[in-house]
Amino acid sequence: MEEDPVITFTINDELCRRAGLTAKWINGHQLSVAAYNPITSTTKDRVSDFAGQNEVNIFHLTTEFIFEEPILRCLIAEANGVYLAVQDLKRQGTQSDYVKISRTYRSIIRACLEKLEEEISNEEISEEVKIRFQNYITIFYSIECVWHLCEILYIDTAPSNIVVPQLLEWTRFHFPSYERIATELLLYEREANTSEDYWPTVKGLILQGQIEVARAILQLHSLSETTAFKMAEQILKTMPVYNVYGGLSIQKFRSQWHYWLTDTELKLSAGILSSEPELEEIVKLITGNQYSWNQQIKQSTCWYEFLSGYLFYTEPACKYFELGSFANLWINRWANEMGFTGSGFLKQLDRVILSVMENDMNQVLHSIQKIGDNQWFVTHLTDLLYHCGQLQVMGEQKKNIAFSLRDALLYEFGSALMSRDSLWMMGVDYLEQCSEGAAAMELLLTKVPVENERQALKVIEVAKQRGLSSVEREICRVQATRSMANERYGNALEWAIRSKDAGAVTAITDFFLTNYSKTGEMLCPDVLGNIGGKMFISPRLVFLVKYFDFHQFYKRREFIEAAKLLVNLLNSKITPEYFWPSLLIDSIPLLESKDPKMPSKETFVILQHLEMELTPLIERSKKQMEKAGDKQPHILKDYRMENIDEIVKLIRLACARNLARAIVIENTFIS
Amino acid sequence: MTVNSCFTSEKISKIRWIHEEYQDANTFVTGSWGSARNNIKVWSIADSNYAKEFSIKCVDKHSTIGDVTGLEVFNKNSLAAVTVEGLLQVFNVDKITDNFSLSRRGGVENLHKFKRGNRAPCNGICVYDDYAATFGEDGRLNILSLADLCILHDIAEGDNCSVTTALFANSKEILTGNRMGVIKQFDVRSKNKEALSTFPISGNDERKSVAITNMCCHPTQKHIVISGTEEGSLMVWDLRKIGFPISCFKAHAQAITEIGFHKTQPSRLFTASEGGEFWQWVQQETSFPLNQSQAFPSESDSNNPWLDSKRTKNQINVTSLITGVRRAINSFDVHGSHLACGGDNEAVYIIATE
């Protein structure tokens, strides 16, 4: 295996040149580069030599990503759907399922190529864009070509591993020019041979093994009724073609074929076709005449153009595992004829095709990673081959590492998509399928840029579907914090409830309560009034909601209900310390009202809480104040009253008055 | 029924048909979300050479910053679009010798703001004739005139929770739904900016918030409102007796993204979901003998199956219109026999039901 070349990027900066460089990844695809002078424990502590001399620049390098281009984006989006269909089959699909999927992938690529070509032919686009699109066409053409070959050899395998018929198909597909002209010629009918394309086309068809079409065109020749043409027709017609389903054993076929071959060669040497040199040439080709084929090789545009045709005439029953050695023989012959030496004459695509034919999977995967498509091809092909059980890649210990290879590729491709703002949803599909995926998704989903609540809900939905509750919570928490900053307190509370984080809910609830005791304003009544069963996430919230209900009763002048609820709250043991003054002050109007609302027992409860909770609290906070050297105890404060001692005095007084009244009433029997 | 699809290279947030008078619509507009620059695109469909297949082609576009969160057609061929940035734009979709083009008529900026003055995301728009209402994360409702492009009225503190959806119940009343599952009713003309009424919904689990994700009202019996929730269920309300939903049933497995009746065939309701489902709810032909004197039996209250939960279950058939979409269908629209939908798998689907 050859070494991958190291690619060097030059940062054109004076300071960087003098001091040196450091770099850090910003995210999966951006690298931040800046000048850096290494400081170690032995470096002298003094002003840097470089200080203040040059401009300080920070450079951001980004990897090339082709899928931002709308046409290509359609390709990955559509292919993503197919990819998901593959996963749904759970490796249980039939061969025809996978063949269908492979063809769908290829048709997506073909559609994309068509669109690119359409764009290039558009007059309005700039030269630069044209070049870029041309480059994409090269990339995706190669991908389609290799994919098609892989489909033939690995997925759509014929019974008994015969490959020639499908190889012919593949060649025809990728060198369609002869067939195209043939169609035109067939429309000419009798005049066909007047076209200067006539003989090259017939020959081309023969070279591609398309005997039927070639015969049809020969019929159109104005001399087709002559003996020579009739002889040629006879030879072409009687040529035995190997067919797996034909019922002939290979041995039988071979003997038939040899018989036909000897017969034809005899005819040729007898010179029966010498009157028509072009016809003679054609018949020579179908007998596999070395000299004639060598002549044709010189016309070929790449090494594999005529390989399948040659095999068709010389090794029609060639099996898949023999293909590699035939390909190598052919490539040597081709190089020889073309006058190439060394190894540099093969282009990347040529080499990949050779590796596929040699069934050298390691090499194939290695090469297609460098195709410049951000690993789209290698990931999807590997995944498909893995699913149909055709991926056999040997690792160091001769173990099949197919699974871990697919895993790694999906991981890479998925993470790359996740780091692109608008493609994160697709990234998740790839990460989901690999073993480290859940952890990666957990990390990466929280990094998806979320600019508004709609986007947040989208990320949450994706996380929820995959059971990543930590992501869900994290995003809700962030949204709660954002809402707090925007003074949308009710909204913040709702997000905190969604986050299922009792701590966050309590913190926001505290804000509501302290705000109330400071200002007397109850924030967001519409939210508090509709919390309902959701309040049970935090005792503090239960307190707030119940306290809000108390206010509602009071507002509606349902004082008896209000008084009951207030006493319940006092007894509830969930009252936050700082709220005792406010809660107890709330009892004053109920105690002091003209008609009694608090029975004696409840009044005792109020007194009890005043003495047991508030008074010790005041003592404690006073001590703290003294320690801190602050004279005024102002922690415990209510908007209605400044002085805490005053508050205590007033409540005691109110309790005493009400108690007197209540005892009298309760002990008066009206008969 | 035939389904044609086209990949758009962007996630679709809204899709709407441009209305045509005497035929099925064949021009639609889409809004996108989730990219650095988003687009409002006009597409036209044409019969292709193959039978029953359409070719779908983008004919014009307008690029904008921020997600397109709302897109509504008014006055037949005018378009009101809002972006998350709080920008309302009005376009004309004009047909000039078979080609549609998009021309911007004007806009209103900064529709939604938090208390500190920073921009608040706008969550969408609803229209009624020439009037529109925008709603957002700041809980504000803006009532605008689309003809004059100005704010007529605003309810600054409509909701202390983000408003996720809104609907004009009639020319003077608007309903809003929020993320914690509360529907509010406002009078858009009154000086009193408090909600006329408020009604909360509850989901399966009392302890969880269930957002209202979308609402629609019956095309002929305007007091029937159906809301879709985050849990994928439908709730039917009768605006004359609000407080509790008339019926509630579990539909989709994931959040409902859009819900709407066929405008001229009220017996058909459509729902789309976050899970990639797109369903049609068709009212069956009534099997019991009808009172002959009623000219339009389905128009009468007693026969509307949505108003009775038992009858809803017995008389309404649900069919799935599309399969194999694995991501949210964010929006759909129906016109005549043509249905269009699109979503996060970056494709639009055109379904011809005839």
Give structural notes.
The complex is a heterodimer of chains A (671) and B (354). With 671 residues, chain A is mostly helical. Among the domains of chain A are: 14-63, no CATH class; 166-345, no CATH class; 558-671. Chain A contains 30 helices and three strands. The longest helix of chain A is centred in the N-terminal third of the chain and has 29 residues, at 127-155. By secondary structure, chain B is mostly beta strands. Chain B has one domain: Methylamine Dehydrogenase, Chain H. Chain B is built from one helix and 28 strands. Chain B is globular. Residues 289-299 of chain B have low confidence and may be disordered. Chains A and B meet through helix 2, helix 21 and helix 23 of A and loops of B.
Number of domains of chain B: 1
Low-pLDDT runs of chain A? none
- This entry's quaternary arrangement is heterodimer
Our estimate of the beta-strand percent of chain B is over 45%
Helix content of chain A: 55-70%
- The amount of beta strand of chain A, in percent, is under 5%
What structural category do the secondary elements of chain A indicate? mainly alpha
The CATH architecture category of chain B equals 7 Propeller
Strand order of the largest sheet of chain A: 1-2-3
Number of helices of chain B: 1
Gap from first CA to last CA of chain A: 111 Å
Mean pLDDT score of chain A, rounded? 87
Distinct helical segment count of chain A: 30
* CATH homology superfamily of chain B: YVTN repeat-like/Quinoprotein amine dehydrogenase
Q: How many DSSP E strands of chain B?
A: 28
Largest sheet entry of chain A: 3 strands, antiparallel
GO cellular component, one term (chain B): nuclear pore outer ring
Subcellular location (chain B): Nucleus
Protein name (chain B): Nucleoporin Nup43
InterPro entries (chain B): WD40/YVTN_repeat-like_dom_sf, WD40_repeat_dom_sf, WD40_rpt
